[in-house]
Amino acid sequence: MRRLFSLDNLVNLVRSVLLDSWRFIVKPFTPAAVAEEFRNLRAAKPASFKKGMLELIPKLTIYYLLLSPIVAMPLYNTMIFHPFATGNYDLKAIDGVPCQNVFFPSTNGKRLYAWFFSCPGASKTVLVSHGNAGNLTNREGLVRLVLQAGASVLVFDYQGFGKSEGHPSLAGICEDTAAAYQYLVQDKRVSPANVIIMGESIGTGAACVVGLSHPCAGIVLQSAYTSLPSLVREKLPLMCLYPDWLFPPTRLDTLAALKRTHPPLLLVHGAQDTLIPIKHSQLIYEQALAPKSFTSLPDAGHNDIYDVDSSQYIGALKQFIDSLS
Description:
Layout: H1 7-26, H2 31-42, H3 46-66, H4 73-80, E1 82-83, E2 93-94, E3 97-98, E4 100-105, E5 111-117, E6 125-129, E7 133-134, H5 140-148, E8 152-156, H6 170-187, E9 195-200, H7 203-213, E10 218-222, H8 228-235, H9 254-257, E11 265-270, H10 279-287, E12 292-297, H11 310-323
Parallel strand pairs: 1-7, 6-8, 6-9, 9-10, 10-11, 11-12
Antiparallel strand pairs: 2-3, 4-5, 5-8
């Protein structure tokens, strides 16, 4: 008999109810509603104006708290993550290296999908924690760069991306990266001393978290940001109204983390990146403890980084990998 009510159906139902409830709660506090309040106040007599202002202050306070990152994180998750379900899943090989389709569980039991490429003669394996959009099928270019640099590759999809189950979150991408690490070490029998943890864009935060909490050979951060709150405040100036304690606990503060002892570090960033400006990686490099190295790709941006200055990228990766042998 077909099961009509699965756990995923229940999760989707709860999410739908929560989102509908959220819309109902915040409706009186939307910008349009608040603007209407101000229009009414401007037209009011002095006594009514004073009374209206006193009534408006609690509403503004509630509005402020409801939109704070720590309260409204489910809403902001939909703005941060843009997963794709489709892609070229028929890939057989890259540069002659066969593509292995693998699945493994995350810490919450959700099944994650990954590609594994065993590069002949390679001693190191690079675990790739990708960016906030698309899925692993959009990372063929990155996999090719790593293979040409002489390392094997495991690239996986976070929960809610591609063929992976579940829904993405900031805490979840860290847990999923840790699960991918465990898969490499336990199932693929790769020694921790031969694992390089690599993050791309938002994945740099997760890679740093896992790289500092698990033994590994090194950490590679491509298009890194200093911390999530600092990047969000750059992109959404209104977020400057919120102190750090009103952000969720998972702040992905790479700048602070790398001021402590860490494995060998390589930072790679496109000088033309307008999404996450290169100043983020420059600041991390300046303040991080050694060992560290930094490669600026002069003509590369954020989304074309695999195709522009690729020989320089490969050279930096190869030099870093060789230095770990």
